[in-house]
């Protein structure tokens, strides 16, 4: 049976698409057949983050409307084997997504042998975001350590607990928190909410902390999900998050200020 | 504001202010969230019925739903106008 995971946040610009790209690549690289679906109808962006924007022929809405089949619309990722991308439509309006249509596609994907279905939610709490979360077994709530993002995350957690199909059936969507753009230096100075603060406010299990890193922008510039950058702290943090998602116990890293050794300092200066 | 207050507030870092503000607003919004959708309409309709008999304003009728374990209490609080 396929596991449906929604990547959501409420607030825009916190890193949902970056996270969807990284997590889906990570899961696929561990050998699981994975598909990542862009639910942001009219504002598709997952394709450009994953460098397949020129390979889009048919999209999610075409498949729902029966204008193309899944095989025609799915784009095979060039980096990770086992990974497929289902792009959002750029032209239709978001009401093109229907509960029945989305359910049919998810069932087809599961029947096709996909083990993980990652749903990249649009920002907001409108129809598209609702469709992305409705069928989820698990939710990754992406938040930045900042007041508006944390508040919106709490709102999203409330919606997951009341409006998802699992909630309607009296079950619970498994929720976890991914804190992105984290800056341990600023946390140490008391300028930024710490992990413990956000965990305490949202009372949600922590999946991971992704440190603020220049490599995230560099990765998106090139269309390479940052998890492929194994040198980068952000890439490593995403890799840890994938391990936890797959049930491994991995200690959290990148949460405190890195102590630079003497050699490292000298090296950096001369480099 | 005394000079002591000035120093005290200067010492408090902005992250703790953010945390405090968030705790308050999140608690408030969670409280709102647990209320059923029909509550505002119920309040409106109750008000109309009461108005048939007594002259009361919107803000003089308060409908509150409290959950105590597995039982819910719907509390209706109407402030009647002063008798002239």
Automatic annotation (TrEMBL), chain A:
Domain of life: Bacteria
Gene3D superfamilies: P-loop containing nucleotide triphosphate hydrolases
InterPro entries listed in its UniProt record: AAA_dom, MinD, MinD_FleN, P-loop_NTPase, ParA/MinD_ATPase
Keywords for this protein: ATP-binding, Cell cycle, Cell division, Nucleotide-binding, Septation
Coiled coil, from the record: none
SUPFAM superfamilies for the chain: P-loop containing nucleoside triphosphate hydrolases
AAA domain: residues covered: 2-156
General function of this protein: ATPase required for the correct placement of the division site. Cell division inhibitors MinC and MinD act in concert to form an inhibitor capable of blocking formation of the polar Z ring septums. Rapidly oscillates between the poles of the cell to destabilize FtsZ filaments that have formed before they mature into polar Z rings.
Annotated NCBIfam families: minD_bact (TIGR01968)
Summary of subunit composition and partner proteins: Interacts with MinC and FtsZ.
Family to which the UniProt record says this protein belongs: Belongs to the ParA family. MinD subfamily.
PANTHER family according to UniProt: SEPTUM SITE-DETERMINING PROTEIN MIND HOMOLOG, CHLOROPLASTIC (PTHR43384:SF6), SEPTUM SITE-DETERMINING PROTEIN MIND HOMOLOG, CHLOROPLASTIC-RELATED (PTHR43384)
Protein name (record): Septum site-determining protein MinD
Organism: Zhongshania aquimaris
Gene that specifies this protein: minD
TrEMBL record, chain B:
InterPro entries, per database record: MinE, MinE_sf
A Pfam family recorded for this sequence: MinE
Function: Prevents the cell division inhibition by proteins MinC and MinD at internal division sites while permitting inhibition at polar sites. This ensures cell division at the proper site by restricting the formation of a division septum at the midpoint of the long axis of the cell.
Keyword annotations of the record: Cell cycle, Cell division
Record-given protein name: Cell division topological specificity factor
HAMAP family, sorted: MinE
One annotated GO biological process: cell division
Family: Belongs to the MinE family.
């Amino acid at each position: 049976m396929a596991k449906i995971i929604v990547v959501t946040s409420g607030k825009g610009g916190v890193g949902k698409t970056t996270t969807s790209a990284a997590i889906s690549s990570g899961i696929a690289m561990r050998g699981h057949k994975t598909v990542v679906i862009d639910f942001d109808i009219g504002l598709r962006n997952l394709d450009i983050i994953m460098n397949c924007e020129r390979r889009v022929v048919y999209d999610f809405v075409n498949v729902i409307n029966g204008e193309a089949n899944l095989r025609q619309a799915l784009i095979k990722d060039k980096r990770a084997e086992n990974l497929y991308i289902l792009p959002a439509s750029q032209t239709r309006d978001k009401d093109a997504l229907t509960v029945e249509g989305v359910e049919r596609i998810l069932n087809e994907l599961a029947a096709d042998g996909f083990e993980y279905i990652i749903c990249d939610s649009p920002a907001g709490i409108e129809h598209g975001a609702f469709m992305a979360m409705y069928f989820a077994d698990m939710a990754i709530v992406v938040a930045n350590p900042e007041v508006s993002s944390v508040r919106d995350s709490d709102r999203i957690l409330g919606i997951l607990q009341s409006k998802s199909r699992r909630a309607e059936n009296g079950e619970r969507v498994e929720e976890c928190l991914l804190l992105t753009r984290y800056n341990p230096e600023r946390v140490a100075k008391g300028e930024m909410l710490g992990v413990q603060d956000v965990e305490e406010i949202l009372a949600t299990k922590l999946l991971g902390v992704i440190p603020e890193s220049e490599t995230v922008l560099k990765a998106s510039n090139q269309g390479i999900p940052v998890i492929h950058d194994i040198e980068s702290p952000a890439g490593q943090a995403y890799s840890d998050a994938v391990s936890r998602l797959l049930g491994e116990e991995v200690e959290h890293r990148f949460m405190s200020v890195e102590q630079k050794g003497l050699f490292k300092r000298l090296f950096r200066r001369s480099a | 504001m005394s000079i002591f207050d000035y120093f005290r507030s200067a010492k408090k870092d902005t992250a703790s202010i953010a945390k405090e503000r968030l705790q308050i607003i999140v608690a408030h919004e969670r409280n709102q969230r647990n209320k059923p959708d029909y509550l505002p309409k119920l309040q409106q309709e109750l008000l109309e019925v009461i108005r048939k008999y007594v002259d009361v304003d919107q803000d003089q009728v308060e409908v509150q739903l409290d959950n105590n374990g597995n039982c819910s209490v719907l509390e209706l609080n109407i402030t009647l106008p002063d008798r002239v």
